[in-house]
Predict the 3D structure of the following.
Amino acid sequence: MRPFRVRSSTPSPAERVRSILAAAHSMTVVADGRRHEVYCAGEDGAAGRIHLHEPHDLDHGRSGPLPVRLELTDIAPTPVRERLRARVTLAGLLCAPYDPERTASTCVEFVRASIEDHRGRADVTLDALQNTGPDPLATREAGMLNHLVDSHRDLVPLLLRLVPPGAKTGLGRALPLALDRYGLTLRLEYPATHQDVRLPFPRPVNDIEQAGPQIHALLSAARRSSHSSRLLA
């Protein structure tokens, strides 16, 4: 029987930035030559600590515009090799000196945003950020992936049946790396290298309640696949 195949789709750079902002529990704020490590409590993550404005939207007063840079890292929640998945940088201007003790949202006049990962760097416009929402699984991804690893480890070898046979030659370990509304990504680790394989869902997930059925669809397709696999976990 043929392996499970559907047209692949992935999150846009803007969606990834919004998702990282929503899920991040910390970020680094660089202002006035100083670096401030900020803990982002609450359901909104880092997105709840900043409020992006259109260029020239803020009144900078006599002090003039004050540059600020926000740095965030996206770290895989599972113990894969090389856990850094992406870096996000937001650059902007403040109308008042940055106050690290401030708990309310800080108004930032948008200048530029970018996301960088193993595929390279992509710039993201303010319009794209404003017109894109975070992935519906963003704030639940870590818990779902760790639950898969800790409580259902036997399902990972099953999912490997959806991976081309050649990719499993010399495989030492496989772990889930990422989960988004479009699918699940596995990291395949070999003695000296690794590669990521994406398993797309039959259809994108629009809310958290749809994630379970789509994951079960992948598992059902894997059970129908004729590929066998072994996993050293």
